[in-house]
Amino acid sequence: MTSLHAVATPRPRMRLTAEPPILLALISSAVQLAAVTWLPMSDTVVSLINAAVIALAGVVTAWATRTTDNGSRVLAAIVGAAEALVALALALGWDWTPEQITPLMSLIQLAAAAWLRGILSPQPARP
Prior knowledge:
The chain is mostly helical and 127 residues long. It is 66% helix and 0% strand. The N and C termini lie far apart (60 Å).
């Protein structure tokens, strides 16, 4: 004889764990919409905000996939994000000359490379 009651199987909980680029694109789009809709800024500044948000999303995506290339994409993404943020700062009134920005960008690149080397370098095998 069979039972009319089905055995309930637990459903997996839905979590927001999709691929990092998808989540970052969602966040990036929301920030861009807010910048275009509610912030009284010029088209140039809004475009630079968009570029900075996308560049920062690129850093997070590169970090999430760092094990596949030992961090070289992370370094490129960090430098690209720094360039986007400097461009945004200049558009918002930061008054630095190219002669001042060049050593800043060099420092950012070298500091990021040193930091990544320290955390992503191969560790000696344990006996």
